[in-house]
Amino acid sequence: MQLNSQNYFSKEAMQKYMSVSQYKDFAGSMGMVGCEHRALAKLRGDWEMTMTLPLLIGSYVDSHFEGTLDVWSAQHPEIFKKDGGLKSQYEHANSFIARIERDPYFMKFASGSTQDIFTGEIFGVEWKCKVDFYQPKVHITDLKIMQEIRKRFWVKDYGNMSFVHYWGYDIQGAIYQKLVEVNTGELLPFFIAGASKEKEPDIEIIGFTQKDLDDTKSIVENNVQRIIKLKSGDINPDRCGVCDYCKHTKVLSKPVHFSELIKL
Fold first, then answer.
1. How many CB atoms are located within 10 Å of the residue 56 CB?
2. More confidently predicted of 51 and 22
3. I want to staple 141 with a disulfide (CB 3.0 to 4.6 A). Which of 82, 133, 148, 183 is the partner?
4. Alpha carbon distance 90, 92 (integer Å)
């Protein structure tokens, strides 16, 4: 199967390839509980995630830097007001795009070829990824737009952490780096080019040590074999019990003790 922008998100591609988002659907991250039942339902086409406003804004910004904003905007008429102007959220998106583009150092990382697709075998399974910015022999960069760059997230038994670890963007860095290495032989540094949606946008280039990425790859490797068995139907999936899919498909059979309500 030859992946391109048209079939990258197809059901066939999702069945054949693992991706970072699919991995997190199954295994989760510090800030997101994985749900094997939901992940398999998405693969079957029985469950679709809702396109939220933050995801739309992120896609708007990605399309700008990819040079496809005119096509993207035509496909998303919901971003326009009745008079044809942009809704306020997207006008604001233009303001932090402008903030990004007036910083020369930021733009050194937000440059190169865009949305390059890489595939390859890691840990005995075929993976796929789309890289926001790739400069051969230089670096791999992923653009992230969030509410606040410096917001702290608290996780039981782990304490406070940044958005990077909370949402599993270190997983993304580890897999993207490895896929580029599999295809090119180059072990390139991975960076996040981050910008906030605040009234006065904050910007940072966020880096990782090689040990950060290697340690994360070890965690992914430990989880992948179970996901392979789940996708092939060799073992039965677990329900997380708290996601929208589990709520939608829940069938009650007995009372639960009140102490169970805060288990997760």
1. 17
2. 22
3. 133
4. 5
CB 170 within 8 A of CB 178: no
Structure token digits, residue 171:
């997983």
Is the separation of the CB atoms in 174 and 219 below 8 Å?
Answer: no
Sheet holding 125-135, edge to edge: 113-122, 125-135, 139-146, 190-196, 203-207
Spell out a b/e string for 94-127, using b for 16 or more CB atoms within 10 Å of the CB, else e.
eebbebbeeeeebebbbbbebbbebbbebbeeeb
CB neighbours (10 Å) of residue 193?
Answer: 24
Indicate the domain borders of the chain: 11-49+103-262
The SS3 of residue 198 is coil
> Do 135 and 129 form a contact (C-beta atoms < 8 A)?
no
- The CATH number that domain 11-49+103-262 falls under is 3.90.320.10
Q: Residues 18-28: pLDDT tens digits?
A: 999 999 999 99
For 157-188, what is each residue's pLDDT tens digit?
Answer: 899 999 999 999 999 999 999 999 999 999 99
9/3 Cα distance (integer angstroms): 9
pLDDT at 264: 61
Paired strand residues for 121: 126
Rounded to whole angstroms, how far apart are CA atoms 141 and 194? 10
83: how many CB neighbours lie within 10 A of its CB?
Answer: 5
Q: What is the pLDDT of residues 196-253, one digit of tens each?
A: 999 999 999 999 999 999 999 999 999 999 999 999 999 999 999 999 999 999 999 9
Q: What angle do CA 148, 51, 202 make, to 5 degrees?
A: 15
